[in-house]
Amino acid sequence: MSASFRSSRQLNSPLCTLQVNGEQHLLPLSDEASLMHVLRNDLSLNGPKYGCGLGQCGACTVLIDGVAARSCVVPASGVQGRAITTLEGLGARERLHPVQQAFIDEQAAQCGYCLNGMILMTVSLLAHTPDPTEAEIRSALSGNFCRCGTHVEIIRAVKRAAVLMHTQVERGHDPA
Ligand code: FES
Ligand code: FES
Question: Is residue 176 part of a domain?
Fold first, then answer.
């Protein structure tokens, strides 16, 4: 994808409305501003991490209408009217999302840089595949890179997350 999506917004750009974590934000956005830069630089949401900037590592993953997307290659002005969710919007400190809880339970982190992408990719996977096989988990996460080699723990965390999600649904809680 073009590197031109990586510049920040410009003050003389047209105003656009972004819906992020349930809140509306009115921002001047140039056509070139990437969603990742707007989230991090303008809205101070540092869940999405800057890895490759080329759509290849998954560190910058967010959910757009519940589906995982790489925010470094998404033009911010193109997602007006869509529901954007970052890691910050997933759960609260006092009530973690089951996927967050599962990653903590399995201690599926070393440096943690990849976890934003791993967690949101898992949320996206479990939304349409609630009982994934290990092969399906590996396939879903195959484009998300972990330089620390924590893959075994991450796969265990995804399996645990699926169980926790089922438990919450059975108790009448909506984990979304
Ligand atoms: S920073 Fe977006 S995919 Fe690597
Ligand atoms: S835990 Fe360090 S990159 Fe995955």
Answer: no
Domain C-terminal end among 89, 109, 139 = 89
CA 73 to centroid of ligand 1, rounded, Å: 8
Please give the distance of CA 105 from its chain centroid, rounded to a whole number. 19
User: In angstroms, how far is the first alpha carbon of the chain from the final one?
Assistant: 30
28-76 pLDDT tens trace: 999 889 999 999 999 999 999 999 999 999 999 999 999 999 999 999 9
In short, whether 113's Cβ falls inside 6 Å of ligand 2 is yes
Domain residues for the domain of 114 are 98-170
- Cα separation, 159 vs 176, in Å, equals 17
Model-level pTM? Answer: 0.91
Buried b (16+ CB within 10 A) or exposed e, 46-63: ebbbbbebebebbbbbbb
Distance CA 98, CA 136 (A): 19
User: Which of 38, 72, 89 is the last residue before a domain boundary?
Assistant: 89
Nearby residues of 1 by Cβ (< 8 Å), 6 or more positions away: 54, 55, 73
